[in-house]
Amino acid sequence: MKRITLTLLLTLTAAGAQSAPTSLTLTGAVTRAVTQGVDVTTARANLQKAQANLRAVRADPTSIITTLTQAEQDVAAQAAALDGAKLAAAQAAVTGYVQAFEAAQRVTLAQAQANLSDRQLKIAQARLAARVATTLDVSRAQNALNSDRQDLVSAQASLPVLEAGLARTLNLPAGTDLKLSAPGDAPKLSVTLAALQGGLDKRLPSLVQAANGAALAALQVRLSDNEYTPARTLDDARTAQANAQRGLDDGLRAAQTGVRDAYRSAQDAQARVAVAREAAANAQAALRNAQARLKAGTAAAIEVQQAQVQAQQADFSVLQAQGGVWRALAGLGVAAGQDVTGLVN
């Protein structure tokens, strides 16, 4: 009997532990993504492997210069790949977190809108009974309520999907119950475009590999430019060097363009926050006016409820604008190979 009781207690305890929500902040989510993400873990292992190989090559007295150079370049490439994996993981975490948090707020807003439409339907029905409205007015109010209820259902259905996607991004167990805090304000974009465009060939994994290829090709030219190497070999080496350099230059131009576009997107996103906040302030002022008019007897309660929903919608727009800044900064970080969110160590 004691064994059964103990087993039941342990089962209930485990069930309670599983049902307890996991509280997360945006900072915590990104930290987990860049330390425990699958791609980051793989990239870290590849870097350690490359470092071990470099140590072995350096310790081998028979290693030739090309072998040593390639081993050193592999370490540089894998280090850039790890940094890139961290930035990509941070972007995925930021996007997933913001979407999931917005989805939860969208449910609240949709519920408020449905409540408003339900009240408007009741008013239309009452007006019809008093013969100051038509059946068409009631039909329109019913259609509006049906639409708002469907929006609510859709919002409620999308929330667990987005939370599950975030949990997967953070390498959390399936079915984890997440409790997300508000993302908060994103930092101002303080770094210049020129600074982000500089040194891309030392930060972006694809450009690091291209730069390594160009450097190795240049080394092959130097090694072939002597009296004992056939002229044809030198010509081939020079052709390979020119091709590698063109590939690097082309990739660098494309990357700089990508950084410029991402930079402008971040600037635009930050500007939209100010616009959304101004609209929210106006909505709050309208709500205060409606409440004052209700108190003075010159407005109906439904007008206050309408103003409340409009204020909620305006606040949600601010939240979306702030989320847009976070996503834009995370995207800029990936494009530039440098964190600008302040969330990646």
Automatic annotation (TrEMBL):
Transmembrane segments: none annotated. Its main location: membrane. One of its GO terms (molecular function) is efflux transmembrane transporter activity. It comes from the Bacteria. GO terms for cellular component: cell outer membrane; efflux pump complex. Keywords: Cell outer membrane, Coiled coil, Membrane, Signal, Transmembrane, Transmembrane beta strand. Residues 266-293 form a coiled coil. Residues 1-19 form the signal peptide. It is found in: Cell outer membrane. InterPro entries: TolC-like. PANTHER family: OUTER MEMBRANE PROTEIN TOLC. This is Transporter. It comes from Deinococcus arenae.
